[in-house]
Amino acid sequence: MHIVTAKEMYDTDRYAMEELGLEGHILMENAGRAVATQVEKQVSSKDQILILVGKGNNGGDGFVIARTLLQRGYSVEVLQIPSDEDIQGDALTHRKIYEAFGYGYHTFEDLNSLRTFSSGKNVIIDALLGIGVKGPLRSPYDEIVPYVNQLEAKVISVDLPSGIPADEGISFEEAIQSDYTMVIQYPKVSAFLQHTAPFYGEWKTVEIGLPDHLLRSKPESCSVWTKEDVVASLPEREPFAHKGSHGKGLVIGGALQMPGSVTMTSRAALRAGAGLLTVATVKDVISILASSVTEATFIALEEQAGKINSVDGIEFAYDGIAIGMGMGRHQEGEKLLEEVLKQAESPVLIDADGLYALKAYLPHLASRSSPTILTPHPGEMAHLLGVEVPELLQKPFQCSRQFASRYGVFVVLKGAFTLVTTPKGNQWVHTTGNVGLAKGGSGDVLAGMLLAMVMQPQSIEEALNNGVFLHGSTADLLTEDTHSTYDLLATDLIDGLSKTYRTHLFE
Questions:
Q1: Which domains, ranges and CATH numbers included, belong to the chain?
Q2: Residue 47, annotated ligand binder?
Q3: pTM over 0.85
């Protein structure tokens, strides 16, 4: 499923009309009827529906939705916000068709007229403003939007909630708080931003017949990674495979004060499918690990005050390496990480404390011949970028893409919508997972799963996306069945992986 900016949506519309001959009023008919069909799933014949119509394409969609619902027997009124003269183009075409069918509409005069026509209505369809919105709302929308938000009616938006910009990095003051949003063809970037996504409520895309040509050919694409993608790309295990066939991995981390992190990473790597695993940590942590990660082997590293002081003694003949979990933030961290990155000729995944040690080495990352994978949460990513967290969250797509391209790394930016970015700028968003993952250790488990995935016969981007998907879907499966979002623990994810593999992938 493609994710688009406003420009990409406009370009796709224009291509469909100018190059393929799909006239705008036909696309508008398709959009309005598709939305109406989805609206029917949210309303009943007893509902009283008011459709608020703006002057652009969203307003034209509103007239098609109204006509379609009226034809299907629903109780619908239309309140047109702009003057008659402001309705033009395809929207005007569909208003004329709406009138030709014998249906009438009301015209907005002031807020009192909205109060009058919304009285008794328990469903409001927001067809006011589209993807071109930028900045504060103008009159009369700056009055209409807060008024709609205080109504007790169910609110359904067309394409995106009015007032929400389609793109990232654009400020706004007020927007419709929707219960449901019927997204036209492709979700917009703002559906996946922490500060704008809540305005969408539940959302669903509706197909209107636009071509994928332009989006498929873009050098920097953005999509949602789905279960179908996992099933298509996760490699099947060969019947004559042996433990070496499934990857020989190394985990480096674990200070005496934080043995749990490296324990969870190691267990998750093995449960996710790593064939062989070695854990390099301080001596006293090995005794803690040995009883819970019995399948692993261990390397005792030099230490100081219970923290790793050197990686001497490691031969870097591994298919994948993960470093940083529970390593601690100390003076030797930068040197340790630099040694690993210089010597390892396999993918290196850097997480947690390793990310804080990485900043001084950033200029040298692009020279690595093997993949480097960073798995930051927003705080860690902001530290690497040298910005504040709110600035990062305003434009995570842009920040991740620029960073990944500049340093030649893969970035897994963790969050409510985890974002995977390649050095070439391709991006995938993940919608699996829930607030139960907001617990200490969830990231350590993900790091172990990703280590296991990158050692399997699949591309790095497939490995990272499959790992993130499985991590989130395990949380979803567990909270549907045996756990709640309150009691879910990171260790539950490790134990729940077997059920995810069986029920989600190998049905």
A1: 6-215 (3.40.50.10260), 227-505 (3.40.1190.20)
A2: no
A3: yes
